[in-house]
Amino acid sequence: MRAGRRLLDAAAVVIALITVFPIYWMVLAAVKPAGEIQSLDQKPWTLAPSLDAFRRVLAVNDFGRYLLNSVLVALAVVLISGLIAFLAAVALTRFRFRFRTTILVTFLIAQMVPIEALTIPLFFLVRDVGTVVPGIGLNTLGSLVLVHTAFTLPFAIWMLRGFVQAIPDELDEAAQLDGAGRFTVLWRILLPLVAPGLAATSVFSFIHAWNDFLFARTFIISEADLQTLPMALLVFFKPDENDWGAIMAASTLMTVPVLIFFLVVRRRLVAGLGGAVKD
Amino acid sequence: MSRVRTRAPLWLLLPAAVVLGGLFLYPMYQLGLLSVLDFTQAQVSGGRPTRFVGAENYTRLFGDDRFWSVLGATVLFAAACVLATLAVGAGLAVLLTRVSRIPRLLLSLAALAAWAVPAVSGSTTWMFLFDTDLGFVNQLFGIEGFNWMYDRYTAFGLVGAVVVWASFPFVMVTLYAGIEAIPKSVLEAAALDGSGAWRTFWRIMVPMLRPVLAIVVIQSIIWDFKVFTQIYVMTHGGGLAGQNLTLNVYAYQQAFASSEYGRGAAIGVVMMLILLAVTLVYLRALRRSGEQL
Questions:
Q1: In terms of residue numbers, what domain contains A3?
Q2: Would B46 be classed as within a structural domain?
Q3: DSSP B202
Q4: pTM
Q5: Distance between CA atoms of B210 and A103, rounded to whole angstroms?
Q6: Which of A:166-185 have CB within 8 Å of B?
Q7: CA of B160, closest CA in chain A: separation in Å?
Q8: Mutating which of B13, B247, B248, B273 best tests the A interface, going by the most A Cβ atoms within 10 A?
Q9: A138 and A273 share a domain?
Q10: Same domain, A43 and A114
Q11: Is the pLDDT of residue A264 over 70?
Q12: What is the ipTM of this complex?
C-alpha cells in the first residue's frame, strides 16, 4: 500500500513537471541569449541569462504601448461590466417580477452563444457606429471595450447573483426603516458587501478581455498604435526566420499578469466556479 | 429593498438590457439577415446594392464539398479534444484524491498555471517547442527537419494537444471538487467490499457525479467546437491549402479574407444552431441537477 502511494506521488509530480514545462520553456527562451536560441542543440537551461529579448520587444517594437492598450481595455471592461452586472444582479435577486426566470435563462443561454460567429455583424455594427460616435468605431480601443463588456456581462451577472443572494434581506430592510433611500441602500450597503464577489468576477472579465485575439484582429485594422498584445506579438513571426527570443519574451509579458491573477484568486476561482454552476 | 412590485428592477436592468440588446440580440439578427443577402466587397464599398437571395448562400454552401469536409473535421477535432480533455482531467482528478499533500499541491498549481496561460502565448510556446529545426522536442527525439504542420493529422494533433493542455485543468479542478464532496463513508464501504479503483470510479463516482459531469462535458463540447485562436495562430489561418480549417476559422476566412460576408454569415448561423442544440441539452442537465432559478 505504502509503495503504491509513493508511486502515485511520483506520478503526480512528474505530470506536474510536464504540465509546467512549456511555461518554463517560454520563460527560459525569453532570457536565453540570441546564440542559444538559434542553436540546433537546445539546452533546458542557460548559463548566460540576458534581458536582450525583452529590451528588443519593449524598446524597438514599442511593446510598452501595446501592453498599455491591453491594460486599458481590460480595466475599462472590468469596471463597466462589473457595475452593470451589479445593478442587474440586484434587480434579479431583490425583486420578484414577471419574466424574471426568462431573463435568467436568457443570460445562461447568452453565455453559450458562439461569439466568434458574431464577428461579421459586429464588424459592420462597429463600422457604422463609428461614423456617429467616433470613440467606438473601427480602429479604436473603445470598440474592444464595448464588445468585451457585452461578452463578459452574462457570466458576470450570473456569478454576482450568487453573491447578492448571500446578503440577508433583513439588512437592507433595516436600513430602509432607518430612512435610507433606495440609492443609499444600493451604494452604501449592497456594494461594499458584494465587493469580494466583484473581485472574483473581475478576474474573469479581465482575462477574457486580456486574451482576446479575434476581435482585436478584426477591429484594429489600420491603426498599428492601437493594437493590443496578442496581435502585436505576431509581428515577430516572419516568413523566413521567426524571432523566437522576442516571441517568447512577448508571450511571457502577456502571461505573467494573468498568472499572478490566477494564483492570487486560486481559492475564489474554484468557489466562484462552483457558485456559477450551482449556488 | 422589499420584494414588492415597483418599477425599480426596470432601471436596474436597463443598462444590461441596452448592452446585451445592442451587442448580442441585434448582431444575431444581423447575422441571420446577412446570411440571406448577396453581400460581398462590392456591396460593402457601396458599388452595388445588396440583394436578397433567399437560401442561396445556404444551398451553395451545402452543395460545396469543402464545407462538408470542414464540418467533418470540426466535429472530429472537437470530439477528439473533448474525449482527451475528459480522460486526462478525470484521471488526474482521481489521482489527486490518492496522493499526499505536497504532490497534490504541485499538480494543482501546475494545472492552474497551464489554465492561466493566454491562448496566444500557449500557441506560440508550443510552436517553438515543436519547431522544425530549433524545437526542443524534435531535437530530443532526433527528428530534426520534421515539420509538424505539413501533415494534416500531425498539425491537428499538435493543435489538439495545446487545446487539451489549456482545458484539462478546468475539468480536473471541477471533478476533484465533486469527488471530495462524495461522503467518505461511501468510498470506504466500497473499499471494504473489495471494490478496486477502476470499479469504484465507474460504479460509484461516475453515477454520483453525473450532474457535475454533464456540465463539464457540455462546457468542453462548446469550447472545443469553436476553438479559434490556437488554429489561427499555429496553422497560420487554417493550414496548408486550408487543410486545418474548422468551421469557425472557415467562416472568418470566407468573410474577411474572401469578402464573402453573406457566405461567412451562413456558416455562422449553422454553427450557432449546432451549439444551440448542445446548449439545450446543457439546460436540461442543469434542471435535472436541481438548479433553482
A1: 1-50
A2: no
A3: I
A4: 0.89
A5: 27
A6: 169, 172-173, 176, 182, 185
A7: 15
A8: B13
A9: yes
A10: no
A11: yes
A12: 0.89
